[in-house]
Structures are given as structure tokens and as C-alpha cells.
Amino acid sequence: MKKLKIxxxxxxxxxxxxxxxxxxxxxxxxNEEVTVxxxxxxxxxxxxxxxxxxxxxxxIYEKSGLSFKHGIITYGNVIDSGYRGEVHVGVFNLSDAxxxxxxxxxxxxxxxxxxxxxxxxxxxxxxLSSSERGTRGFGSTGK
Length: 143
What we know:
143 residues; mainly beta; Deoxyuridine 5'-Triphosphate Nucleotidohydrolase, Chain A; 4-stranded antiparallel beta sheet; 10 strands; dUTPase-like; hydrolase; dUTP diphosphatase; nucleotide metabolism
């Protein structure tokens, strides 16, 4: 099991934790009260700094209840292993009402993913292998 070092910047914010055994994502919390206006966006402080293990990245995802019940979704939330600043969660409020986060509220979940770096090799278009899908894009596989 990999270890994730964490610095808590405020004693009032709970440490991240898995809600249930076997959960892929661990909960992140808000460090301060913030109101996100209808159709607005905000960058929310978590009150944590982390050292994500080498060869991994932390991807921040919505909490299903927040997105389904309140229209709160996350954006731009890739945390690289070399980042040592405070973790922030970018959110959009897609609802028609403001939403207030209070210090200590769950805001999102993070999943630690392993990844591979790739070497880029520039080729000509005819050097790409063919596939069944080809160049068919958005919506091409049906409903």
C-alpha cells in the first residue's frame, strides 16, 4: 500500500478519509465558509498540502450527492505528484440557487491513480494504425 503524506493547515478541517471500506475515493473537506452563486464557480480551500506518491496523480471527482441534489460539479482537478501547495477544489454551481459550503463540509473525493509517462513520436497521418472506429467522433457509437 502506498503512503500519502499530508499536512493539515488548520486543526478545524477533518483529515481526508475513506467513508467505507473498499471505497476508491477519499473525502476532501472545505476549510472555510464559501457561497457559490447560481451558475458561478469557485476555488475552494481544503486546508491540506499533500505529497502524492511518485508515479501517481490525485484526481478530484464530485460527490454524487452534491452533484445530483445541488448541481455542484468539479473542474480542472488533477493534482500532480510534484505539487506541494494547498489542494484546492474547483467547483461549478449549475443550479438556480446559491450553495453555501461550511468549514468541515465534504466537497469532493480524490482517487489516487497510477500512470505511465509516454515518449512522443511525431509521425505522418498514414503511419497511425487503422481502427474500427477510425475518425468517427462524438455520438458515433449511438445512444
